[in-house]
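Obj: model holo form, ligand = adenosine-5'-triphosphate.
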Amino acid sequence: MMTKADVPLVKVDHLIKSFGGKRSLFSKSKSIHAVKDVSLSINRGETFGLIGESGSGKTTIGRMIMKLMDPTDGQILYDGKSISHFSKKEMKDYRSKVQIIFQDSGSAFNPRRPIGKQIAYPLIKNKKYSQDAAMKEVYHCLEMVGLRKDFANRYPHQLSGGQRQRAGIARALVLHPEFLVLDEPVSALDVSVKAQIVSLLENLQKEFNFTYLFIAHNLDLVAYFCDRVAVMYKGEIVEVNTAQQIFRHPQNKVTKKLLGSILTLDGSLNEIKSEAYEINSIN
Ligand SMILES: Nc1ncnc2c1ncn2[C@@H]1O[C@H](COP(=O)(O)OP(=O)(O)OP(=O)(O)O)[C@@H](O)[C@H]1O
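Output (holo structure tokens):
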């Protein structure tokens, strides 16, 4: 008998996304085939890496899973059910269960409002929390990401890059998600801050059994952070394997090329790893 654990949390089935190709009176714009027939499954509690050169379609897949855009064809199943067939209520739940963290999540904060109020907003607006109850939850989330309570009163420009990213993570946590799309979550940060954020994401995953889709355009953190990895090239997946296999025995020439670029990053990878371990052992 199939149990809940046997059903992948996220299943992407023959997904296609094209942009453009619209005909006007005078011309027809060229279509961009951003995602061409991609299928993948992400299991509960897994960190699934999606890597590939810039423009290979990674973010487009992440955005379709988040239902920020619709596929041209194919489907996305969440917990065994097609997200395009969700009822209004199911879609509302889904919008809480899946969250995204961008490269600079802090830039998505409104510069003119304190971050605490912004983190509290969906609780008050969608979940009908009182102001006090929402702020209590905000303080708790800030604490979980290693920010003091008083950060709630700060404006985005009063935070460092690393603190802003932590605040962005706090905002994603406030709705108690299950699945997080991490779209280059540490790319904009210094090496030591990178290590802290990666360590934070790891600890949160251990605590809440989060499932992660980790999007990156090189392999520096993937080998360390991910369980399995899919390599994309021009809208298609060219290789899927465990991170170890991808890293040690790459099969496809695209993977080998991406790995070539990590050789120069190896030093910083080791630095990131040792710092992450250090931080973990301090905590
Ligand atoms: N809204 C859009 N309209 C038109 N083209 C788009 C749109 N979004 C993405 N594209 C195109 O789709 C292709 C895939 O883009 P996508 O952002 O998914 O790549 P990526 O692998 O995430 O790249 P990067 O690593 O640089 O973020 C690119 O050619 C991009 O220009």
